[in-house]
Amino acid sequence: MGTTMGKNGGHFLDALPSQATLHVVMLGLDSAGKTTALYRLKFDQYLNTVPTIGFNCEKIQGTAGRAKGIHFLIWDVGGQEKLRPLWRSYTRCTDGILFVVDSVDVERMEEAKMELLRMAKCPDNQRQ
Ligand SMILES: Nc1nc2c(ncn2[C@@H]2O[C@H](COP(=O)(O)OP(=O)(O)OP(=O)(O)O)[C@@H](O)[C@H]2O)c(=O)[nH]1
Ligand SMILES: [Mg+2]
Predict the structure, then answer these.
(1) Tally of CB atoms within 10 A around 59
(2) Ligand 1: which of 26, 31, 105 to mutate, most ligand atoms within 8 Å of CB?
(3) What pTM value is reported for the model?
(4) Nearest listed ligand to the Cα of residue 100
(5) 79 is in an annotated binding site
(6) Which of 20, 87, 107, 117 is most solvent-facing, going by the fewest CB within 10 Å?
(7) Which of 122, 82, 75, 67 lies closest to 99 in space, CA to CA?
(8) Is the pLDDT of residue 1 over 50?
(9) What share of the chain is helix, strand, coil (3-state, %, to 5)?
(10) Angle at Cα 123 formed by Cα 114 and Cα 51, nearest 5°?
(11) 70 Cβ contact partners less than 8 Å away, ≥ 6 residues apart
């Protein structure tokens, strides 16, 4: 389960020419499934992952709907607690944030909500 938000309001795909590459940062708690989702998008298959220390980055071309033909550079950033202070440096100059939530992990839903709100309230991520 996840959600996206355009940093400049509205649907972030509408405002951009189809030739552009959109920079998207993927965030969420550790073990939320970010890297699994990234490699599923990139290689269309399930791959085993290890916890991300730092980030993974892949270029992906949208194949369906509004995303068709659009290139995305997706930054998948480690979600362990000690790594979360680094998230801000990844979101500062990005077109969108993809926040991944493990919907089965009910115990950490509140923690995920807090981290999402923290990022949304960060001055760098406010609508301009
Ligand atoms: N059952 C199930 N397991 C999943 C799913 N997505 C990921 N996993 C498993 O959850 C574990 C963590 O997945 P990752 O994709 O590495 O999680 P992550 O969000 O990248 O974690 P960090 O890199 O630590 O931030 C792995 O063992 C995955 O196989 C899913 O949709 N269903
Ligand atoms: Mg990961």
Answers:
(1) 10
(2) 31
(3) 0.88
(4) 1
(5) yes
(6) 107
(7) 75
(8) no
(9) 35, 25, 40
(10) 45
(11) 13, 16, 18, 20, 22, 61, 62
pLDDT tens by residue, 36-83:
999 999 999 999 999 999 999 999 998 888 888 899 999 999 999 999
Using CA positions, which residue lies closest to atom 11 of ligand 1? Answer: 31
Q: Ligand 1 center to residue 101 CA distance, Å? A: 10
Catalytic residue among 19, 61, 80, 126: 80
- Asked if residue 4 has pLDDT above 90, the reply is no
* End-to-end Cα separation, the chain, in angstroms: 27
Angle at 30 between CA 27 and CA 33, to 5 degrees: 70
- Closest listed residue to residue 72, CA positions, set 18, 15, 21: 21
Compute how many other C-beta atoms are within 10 angstroms of the C-beta atom of residue 103.
11
